[in-house]
Structures are given as C-alpha cells and as structure tokens.
Description:
The complex is a heterodimer. Chain A is mainly alpha-helical. Chain A contains 4 helices and no strands. Chain A has helices spanning 2-27, 33-61, 69-101, 107-132. In chain A, α1 runs antiparallel to α2 and α2 runs parallel beside α4 (107-132). The longest helix of chain A has 33 residues, at 69-101. Chain A is flat, with a radius of gyration of 17 Å. Chain A starts with a helix and ends with a helix. By secondary structure, chain B is mostly helical. Chain B has a single domain, classed as lambda repressor-like DNA-binding domains (434 Repressor (Amino-terminal Domain)), CATH 1.10.260.40. Chain B is 60% helix and 6% strand. Chain B is globular, with a radius of gyration of 10 Å.
Amino acid sequence: MKDKLGIILGIGIAVAVVVTLIFYILNAGNIELSEIFPIFIVLILIVSAFYILWDRIKNIKKGFPAQDERLKLTNYKACSYGFIASIWSAVGAPLISGIFFDYELPGNYVTAIVVLFGGLTFMISYIYLAWKGA
Amino acid sequence: MKTRIKELRARYDLTQEDLARMVGVRRETIVFLEKGKYNPSLKLAHDVAKSLKTTIDELFIFD
C-alpha cells in the first residue's frame, strides 16, 4: 500500500512538472538559447523519474518489493551526492559567473541552478548506482 | 567478498527470482549478492542463509 501510494504520488508530481513545463514553453514566447539548457535538464529529470517509476511498477507487478534495502541505500547515497552538488553549485555558480563572465547572477537564476544541478546529480548517481551496485 | 549463493541455489533448484521472493528483495539484489558486489545487512544475510539451509559463515567467504 505504501509502495503504491509512493508511485501514485511520484506520477502526480512528474505529470505536474510536465504540465508546468508545457505551460511555460507555450507562454514564454521566444525561448532564448540560454533557456534551452535548463529546459533540457528538466526533460532529463522527467524522463529519469518516469524510468524509476516504471521500474518500481514492473517489480510490484512481478511480486517483488518496489524498494528493498539495496535500493534504499542507493537512494541515500544519491541523495547525499545531490545535496553536496547543490551546495557546491550554490557557491560555485555565482563565483564562476562573476570571475569568468563578469556577470552578477540574479538570485532566482542561482536557485534554478541549485535545484537543477542537485536534481541532475541525484538522478545520474541513482541510475548509475542502481545499475552498477551501491 | 565471495559467496556460495549461486552454488547452493543450484543445489536446491531455485532461480534468482525464487530466492528473491523468499527473502523479500528484488531480483537485482540477488544478482549483486552473487557477484559479491553488495554487502547485505545482517538480517538479509541471515534470511538468505536460512532460505538456502546453511549458515552465514558457510555462505559468505571473506578473502
């Protein structure tokens, strides 16, 4: 029951992100080149999230648990890597922007970078560790 | 770490899926255990050993 609730919640969040992205693209007008990169990262995150959800549904249908102790450990490790990446991107993004591009990043840009970079690191670590072994 | 899971599984004619269902984990976890790429918790090691009618000492070989 808990597994199914988690999957339903995950699908709900993923669909909400897809809908938000579609609304953003439809109402953004001309999308600049600098905006394509974050959209691309969001797409990677959505595809990865759907892959993880599909994997869990497949296991439940076969009578296996959606998450066992190995996958929980994988999750913890990927979360910690994502957290570290978020912290470093919060420190590094304004510094790199200031030093190399002589441009002061607005706060909302830094927030977006932190969220996207942390999420991307989590997804890459999770899929790699689940495939290679935690 | 080496394990005798594959050998004992074959002895009792169990597939990886059968063993996974018996101990309540995913099949991939059994694959990683057999390859020695995952250190299980004490509980999982005990459950696997019990399912294969052996002891933890007999099942896991530390170099």
